[in-house]
Protein backbone atom coordinates (compact mmCIF):
# COMPACT_ATOMS: atom_id res chain seq x y z
CA UNK A 1 0.00 0.00 0.00
CA UNK A 2 2.84 2.37 0.83
CA UNK A 3 4.46 1.65 -2.51
CA UNK A 4 1.36 2.95 -4.32
CA UNK A 5 1.03 6.16 -2.18
CA UNK A 6 4.65 7.32 -2.64
CA UNK A 7 4.33 8.30 -6.34
CA UNK A 8 1.01 10.07 -5.67
CA UNK A 9 2.56 12.18 -2.91
CA UNK A 10 5.69 12.99 -4.87
CA UNK A 11 3.88 14.18 -8.00
CA UNK A 12 2.48 17.49 -6.65
CA UNK A 13 5.81 18.34 -4.98
CA UNK A 14 7.79 17.64 -8.12
CA UNK A 15 5.30 19.71 -10.16
CA UNK A 16 5.61 22.64 -7.75
CA UNK A 17 9.39 22.41 -7.85
CA UNK A 18 9.35 22.43 -11.63
CA UNK A 19 7.05 25.51 -11.57
CA UNK A 20 9.39 27.27 -9.17
CA UNK A 21 12.47 26.45 -11.24
CA UNK A 22 10.85 27.48 -14.52
CA UNK A 23 7.90 29.88 -14.41
CA UNK A 24 8.57 31.59 -11.06
CA UNK A 25 12.28 31.92 -11.80
CA UNK A 26 11.49 33.44 -15.21
CA UNK A 27 9.08 35.89 -13.60
CA UNK A 28 11.70 36.95 -11.05
CA UNK A 29 14.28 37.36 -13.81
CA UNK A 30 11.84 39.48 -15.84
CA UNK A 31 11.17 41.80 -12.91
CA UNK A 32 14.88 42.03 -12.09
CA UNK A 33 15.75 42.72 -15.73
CA UNK A 34 13.07 45.41 -15.93
CA UNK A 35 14.45 47.12 -12.82
CA UNK A 36 17.99 47.04 -14.22
CA UNK A 37 16.89 48.30 -17.63
CA UNK A 38 14.89 51.17 -16.14
CA UNK A 39 17.80 52.17 -13.91
CA UNK A 40 20.14 52.11 -16.87
CA UNK A 41 17.68 54.18 -18.93
CA UNK A 42 17.38 56.73 -16.11
CA UNK A 43 21.17 56.89 -15.73
CA UNK A 44 21.62 57.32 -19.47
CA UNK A 45 18.98 60.06 -19.56
CA UNK A 46 20.71 61.93 -16.73
CA UNK A 47 24.06 61.64 -18.50
CA UNK A 48 22.61 63.00 -21.73
CA UNK A 49 20.95 65.86 -19.84
CA UNK A 50 24.25 66.68 -18.14
CA UNK A 51 26.04 66.76 -21.49
CA UNK A 52 23.37 69.06 -22.88
CA UNK A 53 23.67 71.25 -19.78
CA UNK A 54 27.45 71.48 -20.22
CA UNK A 55 27.02 72.54 -23.84
CA UNK A 56 24.47 75.16 -22.87
CA UNK A 57 26.77 76.44 -20.12
CA UNK A 58 29.62 76.84 -22.59
CA UNK A 59 27.29 78.62 -25.00
CA UNK A 60 26.19 81.20 -22.43
CA UNK A 61 28.14 83.94 -24.20
CA UNK A 62 26.41 83.06 -27.45
CA UNK A 63 22.82 82.50 -28.43
CA UNK A 64 21.73 79.25 -26.86
CA UNK A 65 20.87 76.64 -29.44
CA UNK A 66 17.18 75.92 -29.75
CA UNK A 67 18.16 72.43 -30.89
CA UNK A 68 19.85 71.73 -27.54
CA UNK A 69 16.75 72.85 -25.65
CA UNK A 70 14.57 70.63 -27.81
CA UNK A 71 16.91 67.67 -27.36
CA UNK A 72 16.72 68.06 -23.58
CA UNK A 73 12.91 67.97 -23.64
CA UNK A 74 12.83 65.06 -26.09
CA UNK A 75 15.27 63.10 -23.91
CA UNK A 76 12.95 63.44 -20.90
CA UNK A 77 9.88 62.46 -22.90
CA UNK A 78 11.53 59.43 -24.53
CA UNK A 79 12.82 58.23 -21.16
CA UNK A 80 9.39 58.56 -19.55
CA UNK A 81 7.69 56.74 -22.45
CA UNK A 82 10.32 53.98 -22.45
CA UNK A 83 9.88 53.36 -18.72
CA UNK A 84 6.10 53.11 -19.09
CA UNK A 85 6.47 50.58 -21.92
CA UNK A 86 9.00 48.51 -19.96
CA UNK A 87 6.77 48.35 -16.90
CA UNK A 88 3.69 47.48 -18.98
CA UNK A 89 5.38 44.71 -20.99
CA UNK A 90 7.01 43.30 -17.85
CA UNK A 91 3.68 43.16 -16.03
CA UNK A 92 2.02 41.24 -18.89
CA UNK A 93 4.89 38.76 -19.29
CA UNK A 94 5.13 38.21 -15.54
CA UNK A 95 1.43 37.41 -15.25
CA UNK A 96 1.77 35.02 -18.18
CA UNK A 97 4.76 33.25 -16.60
CA UNK A 98 2.88 32.87 -13.32
CA UNK A 99 0.09 31.09 -15.15
CA UNK A 100 -2.57 33.69 -14.49
CA UNK A 101 -5.07 33.82 -17.38
CA UNK A 102 -5.00 37.22 -18.97
CA UNK A 103 -8.49 36.74 -20.37
CA UNK A 104 -9.81 36.82 -16.83
CA UNK A 105 -8.59 40.39 -16.46
CA UNK A 106 -10.39 41.66 -19.56
CA UNK A 107 -13.75 42.34 -17.92
CA UNK A 108 -12.36 43.94 -14.73
CA UNK A 109 -9.85 45.91 -16.80
CA UNK A 110 -12.67 47.22 -18.98
CA UNK A 111 -14.61 48.43 -15.96
CA UNK A 112 -11.54 49.97 -14.38
CA UNK A 113 -10.59 51.54 -17.72
CA UNK A 114 -13.99 53.18 -18.09
CA UNK A 115 -13.85 54.48 -14.51
CA UNK A 116 -10.33 55.80 -15.00
CA UNK A 117 -11.35 57.27 -18.34
CA UNK A 118 -13.81 59.60 -16.64
CA UNK A 119 -11.42 60.44 -13.82
CA UNK A 120 -8.26 60.73 -15.92
CA UNK A 121 -9.52 63.07 -18.61
CA UNK A 122 -7.33 65.84 -17.25
CA UNK A 123 -4.26 63.56 -17.28
CA UNK A 124 -4.92 62.65 -20.91
CA UNK A 125 -5.35 66.34 -21.70
CA UNK A 126 -2.04 67.13 -19.97
CA UNK A 127 -0.20 64.42 -21.89
CA UNK A 128 -1.60 65.53 -25.26
CA UNK A 129 -0.71 69.15 -24.49
CA UNK A 130 2.79 68.12 -23.42
CA UNK A 131 3.24 66.15 -26.64
CA UNK A 132 2.34 69.25 -28.68
CA UNK A 133 4.65 71.46 -26.59
CA UNK A 134 7.61 69.17 -27.27
CA UNK A 135 6.91 68.47 -30.94
CA UNK A 136 6.15 72.12 -31.77
CA UNK A 137 9.20 73.35 -29.79
CA UNK A 138 7.15 75.96 -27.97
CA UNK A 139 9.75 76.14 -25.19
CA UNK A 140 12.46 73.97 -23.69
CA UNK A 141 14.91 73.57 -20.85
CA UNK A 142 16.56 76.90 -19.98
CA UNK A 143 13.98 79.13 -21.66
CA UNK A 144 12.59 82.13 -19.80
CA UNK A 145 8.82 82.01 -20.27
CA UNK A 146 5.65 83.64 -19.01
CA UNK A 147 2.82 81.18 -18.39
CA UNK A 148 -0.82 82.14 -18.27
CA UNK A 149 -2.56 79.32 -16.40
CA UNK A 150 -6.27 78.57 -16.40
CA UNK A 151 -7.85 79.99 -13.25
CA UNK A 152 -4.72 81.84 -12.08
CA UNK A 153 -5.14 85.61 -11.59
CA UNK A 154 -1.61 86.51 -12.72
CA UNK A 155 0.86 84.92 -15.17
CA UNK A 156 4.02 83.26 -13.87
CA UNK A 157 7.48 84.20 -15.17
CA UNK A 158 10.45 81.92 -14.67
CA UNK A 159 13.13 79.70 -16.14
CA UNK A 160 12.12 76.26 -17.40
CA UNK A 161 13.81 73.51 -15.38
CA UNK A 162 11.92 70.49 -16.70
CA UNK A 163 9.38 69.64 -19.39
CA UNK A 164 7.60 66.28 -19.47
CA UNK A 165 4.49 65.05 -21.21
CA UNK A 166 2.41 65.92 -18.14
CA UNK A 167 3.94 68.93 -16.36
CA UNK A 168 6.16 71.96 -16.85
CA UNK A 169 8.40 72.99 -13.95
CA UNK A 170 9.77 76.53 -13.86
CA UNK A 171 11.72 78.48 -11.25
CA UNK A 172 10.74 82.09 -10.65
CA UNK A 173 13.14 84.99 -10.08
CA UNK A 174 12.60 84.71 -6.32
CA UNK A 175 13.57 81.02 -6.38
CA UNK A 176 10.09 79.52 -6.15
CA UNK A 177 9.43 76.30 -8.07
CA UNK A 178 6.14 76.42 -9.99
CA UNK A 179 4.77 73.12 -11.35
CA UNK A 180 1.99 73.49 -13.92
CA UNK A 181 0.03 70.72 -15.68
CA UNK A 182 0.48 71.18 -19.41
CA UNK A 183 -3.25 70.96 -20.05
CA UNK A 184 -3.87 74.02 -17.83
CA UNK A 185 -1.57 76.32 -19.82
CA UNK A 186 -3.65 78.88 -21.71
CA UNK A 187 -0.88 81.01 -23.22
CA UNK A 188 2.92 80.88 -23.31
CA UNK A 189 5.18 83.87 -23.95
CA UNK A 190 8.74 82.78 -24.68
CA UNK A 191 11.10 85.56 -23.55
CA UNK A 192 14.28 83.80 -24.69
CA UNK A 193 13.63 82.44 -28.17
CA UNK A 194 16.56 83.30 -30.47
CA UNK A 195 16.98 86.83 -29.05
CA UNK A 196 15.35 89.29 -26.66
CA UNK A 197 14.95 93.03 -26.31
CA UNK A 198 15.33 95.44 -23.39
CA UNK A 199 13.07 98.50 -23.67
CA UNK A 200 13.81 101.58 -21.53
CA UNK A 201 11.42 104.53 -21.39
CA UNK A 202 13.35 107.51 -19.97
CA UNK A 203 11.07 110.19 -18.43
CA UNK A 204 12.59 113.62 -19.05
CA UNK A 205 11.32 116.93 -17.59
CA UNK A 206 9.53 119.03 -20.17
CA UNK A 207 11.92 121.96 -19.75
CA UNK A 208 14.98 120.00 -20.96
CA UNK A 209 16.02 120.38 -24.60
CA UNK A 210 15.31 117.24 -26.64
CA UNK A 211 18.56 117.38 -28.67
CA UNK A 212 20.59 117.50 -25.46
CA UNK A 213 18.76 114.46 -24.09
CA UNK A 214 19.27 112.57 -27.34
CA UNK A 215 23.02 113.29 -27.36
CA UNK A 216 23.35 112.05 -23.75
CA UNK A 217 21.50 108.83 -24.55
CA UNK A 218 23.59 108.23 -27.68
CA UNK A 219 26.76 108.57 -25.59
CA UNK A 220 25.40 106.12 -23.02
CA UNK A 221 24.58 103.62 -25.80
CA UNK A 222 28.13 103.88 -27.17
CA UNK A 223 29.62 103.42 -23.68
CA UNK A 224 27.48 100.37 -23.01
CA UNK A 225 28.35 98.77 -26.35
CA UNK A 226 32.03 99.46 -25.73
CA UNK A 227 31.99 97.85 -22.26
CA UNK A 228 33.43 94.30 -22.64
CA UNK A 229 31.17 92.85 -19.93
CA UNK A 230 28.01 94.29 -21.49
CA UNK A 231 29.11 93.95 -25.12
CA UNK A 232 28.92 90.14 -24.92
CA UNK A 233 25.24 90.38 -23.96
CA UNK A 234 24.32 92.56 -26.95
CA UNK A 235 23.63 91.50 -30.52
CA UNK A 236 23.96 95.06 -31.86
CA UNK A 237 24.42 98.60 -30.44
CA UNK A 238 21.53 100.00 -28.36
CA UNK A 239 19.32 102.44 -30.25
CA UNK A 240 17.61 105.68 -29.24
CA UNK A 241 14.17 105.39 -30.81
CA UNK A 242 13.02 108.94 -29.97
CA UNK A 243 10.07 110.40 -28.11
CA UNK A 244 7.61 107.67 -27.20
CA UNK A 245 4.95 109.72 -25.37
CA UNK A 246 4.17 113.27 -24.23
CA UNK A 247 2.73 114.39 -20.91
CA UNK A 248 2.10 117.76 -19.27
CA UNK A 249 5.26 117.82 -17.17
CA UNK A 250 7.52 115.38 -19.02
CA UNK A 251 8.15 113.41 -22.20
CA UNK A 252 9.42 109.84 -22.53
CA UNK A 253 12.34 108.89 -24.74
CA UNK A 254 12.67 105.21 -25.63
CA UNK A 255 15.96 103.30 -25.74
CA UNK A 256 16.00 99.75 -27.16
CA UNK A 257 18.74 97.11 -26.88
CA UNK A 258 18.64 93.71 -28.63
CA UNK A 259 20.25 91.10 -26.37
CA UNK A 260 20.98 87.43 -26.04
CA UNK A 261 18.05 85.22 -24.96
CA UNK A 262 17.13 85.84 -21.33
CA UNK A 263 19.63 88.70 -20.89
CA UNK A 264 17.17 91.55 -21.45
CA UNK A 265 16.64 91.97 -17.71
CA UNK A 266 20.36 92.31 -16.95
CA UNK A 267 20.80 94.74 -19.83
CA UNK A 268 17.77 96.76 -18.72
CA UNK A 269 19.21 97.22 -15.21
CA UNK A 270 22.61 98.20 -16.61
CA UNK A 271 21.11 100.75 -19.00
CA UNK A 272 18.95 102.35 -16.32
CA UNK A 273 21.98 102.74 -14.04
CA UNK A 274 24.14 104.24 -16.83
CA UNK A 275 21.38 106.62 -17.95
CA UNK A 276 20.71 107.84 -14.40
CA UNK A 277 24.41 108.55 -13.77
CA UNK A 278 24.83 110.29 -17.15
CA UNK A 279 21.86 112.59 -16.53
CA UNK A 280 23.06 113.44 -13.03
CA UNK A 281 26.46 114.44 -14.40
CA UNK A 282 24.68 116.80 -16.77
CA UNK A 283 22.62 118.27 -13.94
CA UNK A 284 19.34 116.77 -15.13
CA UNK A 285 17.24 115.24 -12.36
CA UNK A 286 15.06 112.45 -13.70
CA UNK A 287 11.64 111.71 -12.23
CA UNK A 288 11.40 108.67 -9.96
CA UNK A 289 9.60 106.63 -12.62
CA UNK A 290 12.59 105.57 -14.72
CA UNK A 291 11.07 102.26 -15.69
CA UNK A 292 11.58 99.47 -18.17
CA UNK A 293 8.97 98.71 -20.78
CA UNK A 294 7.72 95.21 -21.37
CA UNK A 295 10.67 93.03 -22.53
CA UNK A 296 9.86 91.46 -25.87
CA UNK A 297 11.38 89.02 -28.29
CA UNK A 298 10.77 90.89 -31.49
CA UNK A 299 9.64 94.28 -32.66
Could you explain how this protein is built, in words?
The chain is an alpha+beta fold. The protein contains seven helices and nine strands; from the N terminus they run H-H-H-H-E-E-E-E-E-E-H-H-E-E-H-E. Among the domains are: 2-100; 196-292, Alpha-Beta Plaits (2-Layer Sandwich). Helix 1 (2-58) packs antiparallel against helix 2 and helix 5 (210-226) crosses helix 7 (264-281). The longest helix has 57 residues, at 2-58. The model is unreliable at 1-6 and 58-63 (pLDDT under 50).
Largest sheet, strands/sense/barrel: 5 strands, antiparallel
Given as residue ranges, the uncertain stretches (5+ residues, pLDDT < 50) are 1-6, 58-63
Strand arrangement, largest sheet? 4-3-2-1-5
Q: How many β-strand runs?
A: 9
The residue-averaged pLDDT reads 78
Shape: elongated
Q: Which class of secondary structure composition applies to the elements? A: alpha+beta
- One letter per element, helices H and strands E, the order comes to HHHHEEEEEEHHEEHE
Intertermini distance? 100 Å
Number of distinct helices: 7
Q: Beta-strand percentage?
A: 15-25%
Radius of gyration: 31 Å
What is the share of helical residues? 40-55%
